[in-house]
Amino acid sequence: MLCLRCGKEFEPKDQSPSHLKRNPPMYCSHECGKYARLSKVTLVCRQCGKEFQRKKYMSEWSQERGPFCGFDCYARWQSQHITGKENPNYKRIFLQCAHCGDDFEVQPYQKDRRFCSRSCFELFAREMWKSRNPDSRGNCWKAIRVQALERDHWECQDCHSTTNLVVHHKKPFSECSCRESAHELGNLVTLCRACHRSLHNHTSILHH
Question: What is the pTM of this model?
Fold first, then answer.
């Protein structure tokens, strides 16, 4: 083998194949190795263009992308050049949006995503809400609710509590023929949340 410093041919002391494979000798003696490690060379940073000193035996490091004067410059260079499809870790899959039907790109861990954007999700949810609830309570409900509360003196008609009040439809809203009939004052009664919950639980048991 040839010494990397003086060029002298030498025989390594430990000639076992496993040792030579793990730690191939670079210098013929300790003196040559020490000198090579202490000597430095001047390199130019690929990112910032500044000159910097590096030990001679390290001068061949990072030649594929660098050299770089430090980790900050290396990180900046990566962010500018190893992005998107240029990044070796770049992986994407294509899905179809459940609302607009367009294809969109996501990372593999997002394989269960259904919409390409927040706006598509909101439009889809709005349309689904309308289709599942064709008879919404309407803009008039707030005013009618207040009328029912005032008629019942702002107290639960079961336990007379004056807190946590709700307005209950005696005939369920979903069973009424139209919004107007559901919101008739005769079909409304003021209850507290506890009584309202108890009433619905009792009704559910009777239906079962």
Answer: 0.36
